[in-house]
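Hallway conversation turned thread

IA: we were arguing at lunch whether anyone had actually written out Phosphoenolpyruvate synthase end to end. Turns out nobody had. So, for the record, here is the sequence (969 residues) and right after it the structure tokens. Reply here if something looks off.
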Amino acid sequence: MKNITLIYSICILIFTSTTFAQKKSHSDIKKIVEAYKKDIRGPYYRIKWFCKDGSIRDSKDPCPDSIGGGIQHASFKESALDLRKSNHLFFAEILASVKKDDFLDEKNNYSRLKQYQIGQYLASVDDGWVLKKGQYYRGAVQSEDEEAWGKGFYETILKDDTFLNSNYYLVRQSLKDIPHNGDSNIAQLMRSESKVLAEEIPDFMDIRIKIHGNPQKTDIYLVQSYIKKNASKISAKEKKAFDKLLLTMNEFYAPLNYVTIANELAKVKDKNGVLKTLKEFINEDKSNFTPRDIVQKITNNLDFLRFNITLFESSKDRLNLLDLTNQLEKILLIETQNWKPETLEETILKTETLICASYATGLVEAWEFDVVKPIFSNTLENEKTTLEQLNSLVTNARRIVEWSTSLVKANYQEDVNEYATFESLAYGFIDDRIRNSITLNLGETVSKLNAFASKVSEVNNDVMSIENQDAIRGLNPGYAFGKLIVVAGNPDDVEVNTNNIYIFQKPPSDLKPVAGIMTVSEGNLVSHVQLLARNLGIPNAALSSENLNSLEKYSNKNVFYAVSSKGNVILKLENEMTAIEQKLFDKKERSKNMIEVPTDKLKLDVSKIINMRDVKATDSGILCGPKAANLGELKNLFPDKVVEGIIIPFGIFKTHMNKEMPNKNMSYWEFLNSTFAQAKKLKTNNASEEEVENFLIRSLKELHSAILNINLDSNFTQDLKDNFSSVFGDKIGNVPVFLRSDTNMEDLKEFTGAGLNLTLFNILEEQKIIQGIKEVWASAYTERSFKWRQKYLLNPENVYPSILIIPSVDVDYSGVMITKGINQGTEEDLTVAFSRGAGGAVDGQSAETRLITAETDYLLSPARQADYIRLPINGSTKKYYTTFSKPILNPRNVNDIRELATEIRSKIGAKSTEEPHAYDVEFGFKDNKLWLFQIRPFVENKQAKSSDYLNSIAPKVNMDTEIKLTEKI
């Protein structure tokens, strides 16, 4: 019995440690990391022999040849092994000990491989990071074993054509970090060594910034001059660090050894003739080459190698050639800085060349490059160009910069965000990768081109006098005054304030209302956040990562911010505001935009569930919200494109709200109304807006919690079950459904309310559906929903939620269409944003965005969202990962979208008694069949567009102005 109990205990221990390892908190991981930094062995335990037969021996007991021998390296502390199980975190990885498939970690979007790269970066900028002391632990890692493993790893994974084509950027980047041929990441080392010195010696910062932002060989002389000038102040330790930096810089800027490259090329056994051009370049006399010649020739060869890499059948050949592309790229980065065009024509040529180099080095996909290539092909054929043509070229070139930076982020952001929760230095990894790419110089070149175009057109930004502000462009017109908050890291942990102006790398998908926003790249034009900003006249602009970094020093200062309808942007400190700008905020203007939710037509006596087929658009605001009413209308107009549905009307919600609220001696509804009555009383007694808002938020939070626990009437739950059977053809618990909140304050004439309340995805179990109904009702009283409503509604207490229940459609991809051009295009065009899986584009994913006209299909931005969700038949959601090697929408989809827009305009527009307006449409595709989920009016803030001040700062531009290509730039 004792033995059985012991075996049982061991089984439980093994099972719980491997299957249910408790996930550690960020603060716990941070403590572990700090402990490793101080430990002479870091995360390592002790040196062991790891034998081929799977056995492990003590360091003094080598594996015998009779069992195949083995290798010697460190084992890991139990805490490090626990982190692998609980949090999928791998510190100080020893490659020789890992199975190749485990390290590739494909099922987790290659997370383990990427973590290795992030770890290498952290070690370079933080003196070994978790191995700060453990890096001197002799015998822990054997370099020859690591390199042998790395070589075998690449020769294995590079056999797969699909993997290589779909992950070209990731593969080339990993080659810089994973040992396999004695190489090292010299560029990263140069930047990290200069960064460490600048942190110790503040007045070295300017040179460090130069090395990071505009690296050139002359930087060596800058460092040498600094050492000479400050010799008396530099300590022995600092002198040693400077000597190390100079050695690294000299190695980085050493001339490319073409003889060595020729020898490497000779190792390639495949004789398919593809390398002819490259061999000619390698053997060419380069003594008379200009930087322009070298950049163009290397770009052409890198382009050729990427396009033809899978023609080489041997993975060894592929590995050699990919290593060669990294060597060539290193020279390319140096020579692009040396190429300094003087005319408009040559600047355009350099821009075109670097765009090609972006594709050639993996920063944009082949199909994306094919889209933009024709735009640049005819530019240099004539002696002149027009301002319109030049602006188009600048816009598209700037897009490539954005696509390139967003591809780097899409590859690494998820893992960087995870690491940054316990090691803030991790945020620098993505910036380091971007700076070690052609994107850095392409961005500078495009900025010069844009500055020239702005000078001709007299469209200029005025943003704190920062450099390269030509990359900034307005998205939504409007103006604001408030405290500037710059969020360089993960935005999800930031508690936003309604009165502040925020600059984000990426806005959180559930952003609460703010005074103004700027984001790095425009992201998704039709996400809920963007539509709400447009709706409320909140100024919104796109900027570069460099701009964000430049503006960090102004964080927490009061600023004035304005975006004109032409897209020029003003951002200035409070004391620089003009008298006209100050007058804009003399008194609050919000009141004249406030609207009242109509309640006179509400039918609150309807207490039975409604079949969606039995409602039409005119029932919106009477029986249910517009989602349900419009979808019922759509079911009749587009019967084959819309699913069945049932509706829980306002009346059922109100019946439950009339129940007595626990411990209050009043009903839920009376508590709600007394809350707003008390808020009005506080205002009358001159309480501050902040006091009133805090009171409302506290009270509504209490109401929200109470609704989550409300008891549902038995008659209602039976009605729900009956309708599942009659409408969906199966009993509740067998049909996965969406629960969509649908209030009477959505889609009002001047307020969209898009995405403010809760939608629950793919709920299957009966109990989860029952609880979900309470969650959706309660979501009307969350802080975020309340704050957005407060911007516009005079009577926010009269918000009634209905619920639309529809069966799930496991779409391949989904998104949003606005039946007009946004920021670009005409009233007749279509702006479409799509992401893979369900719920696409609405939550701010970096979606595939297109401007679709009657004849053309114009890519505004490709998708850069690596993860997506699908809706399995057993309920809930399942996460998947994708690459970006193929577009989401195909030509057939685009034609279906055009036809849908035509149908919407004719069927819905014909029924409307008002002037024609645009629509906001949510839909998806399953096996190329279009499914329609929602149509609502597209609401814009007309006052922001017509503001006298905004009109006054928008320049008048003659787009037909001709410009000679020979003009100096």
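OS: looked through it. Residues 1-19 have pLDDT under 50 and may be disordered.
IA: good, adding that to the notes. The two ends are 89 Å apart (CA to CA).
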